[in-house]
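ARCHIVE CARD
SHELF: 3
SLOT: left
DATA:
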Amino acid sequence: MTKNNWQAVTIATQNEAVESVADILRTVGADGVQIVDDQVPVKVIAYFENNEQLSATVTNIQSQLNELQRYGIDATPGSVTVAGVAQSEWENEWKNYYHATRITRHLTVVPSWEAYLPNQRDEYPIIMDPQLAFGPGTHETTRLMLQALETVIRSGESMIDVGTGSGVLAVAAKQLGVDTVLATDIDESAVAVAQANLTLNPVAKDVTVVVSDLLESVDSNLKVNLVVANILADVIERLIPQVTKHLKKDGYFLVSGIYDDIAPQIIDQLGRSHFVISEHMIMGKWHAFIAKSQLE
């Protein structure tokens, strides 16, 4: 396509709002989302075909950015700029910002295009090609989840990864010794990306990925040791009642994607759903919980 056929919509925001801003852009139909976080404010760039709907789309984006403030998410300055761009300029440009990143004692997220050798015997690389529409697996919410997984996983256990996205948590679980993993996502494109990433990690070749709205398409008789979810807080509230039906006795629910202001109500709902929070993890303004089921 020529330069006039694509438009880059750039939003300047705070690091803590990046995930929410990126979700807004994906929801309104961006063909790709790029995050440039080596400066302040952070830039989140989305690419759209230049058509008659673009003006309305930009107005919708600005409206949703304003809504983030109501949830206590600081998305300032929240400026939105639009500029023409050639497709060839953005198809691979985003890869320049992603490099191998050590996340926990044992886990390192490695882009598929980068050669990497582990520095120690018990370091496990997670090879990711997140594609333009998904993050590289290094956002604070993902870091929290990887730390939580490393804390509770025991070899031979079973797990469901809800809202798998790029599949990073499913791969990490297999690297840490989980026996069986079922991954779900409501987005068919996410399922395709996750399946592609599983093929990059031979340890995860037996992970099953399915299209499902949370756990609605999962066999009602399936019981696992762990359910993990790195998703938006309002979706977590809908997920919690479903999780209790799929956890074995003393099973764990690991959950992230929770912003400061929402954390108290998630804590309350977990308690009312017979979970005890064994660890409350915080990174920046993001929260994650390791919650143990008390149901018999």
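SLOT: right
DATA:
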Amino acid sequence: MSIISQINHCEDADETGNCFKILSEQEMNLLQNNRTEIHFSKGETIIKQGTKSSDILYLKEGLVKVGVNNGDNNLILCIKTKNHFIGTENIYGYEYHAYTVTALEDSVICFIDTSAIRQLIKQNNNFNAELYKVITSNTLMTFNRFFSLTQKQLHGRFADILLCLSKKIYKSKKFDLPLSRKDLAALTGMAPESVIRIIKDFKTDKIISTKGKRIEILNEPLLEKISNVG
């Protein structure tokens, strides 16, 4: 298994393509009649942890962070890009949002009524199967995140994030970091001071270079080795 296939802090695969393609015209109309499309600016809160839930979210455009907090303690669970569902756990069982979703870039979100999704699940077995694949993928991502946060050292966790952003989100060795130092700390489960120190270490070792928000990966093989070794 390649290193990158194990890095699941952010996702780029189109989760929703097959789900929508297998719907009939009548079923697509059902979705269209039970959705609301909203534009969010960078930094806006899309949903808030603990609030009542009656929809699942489809990220049509943009980039968001999904996080939980307990007082002063914050943990970013993952980063999601376009063509992803958020909140599939709300289809059955959960009445309240288990996390907060915030726009990292200007984003377009479709709020789809869970009752419409449940109706499609009952009447279209293929849709049910494709949605189950999405839920399974999210579960596996959670397992991999848990492994990274509990078993890897600080440098390995940070290497995971850089590779994730480079290979899955921006598909380039040069990109503008969408996260603050505080967000990076919440994503990697470390203190902001540790993030600053690791960035300095990676620059000293010529693994990356930085200029403002701009990051360039200079030594990808070494970064992958750090990620793999942990």
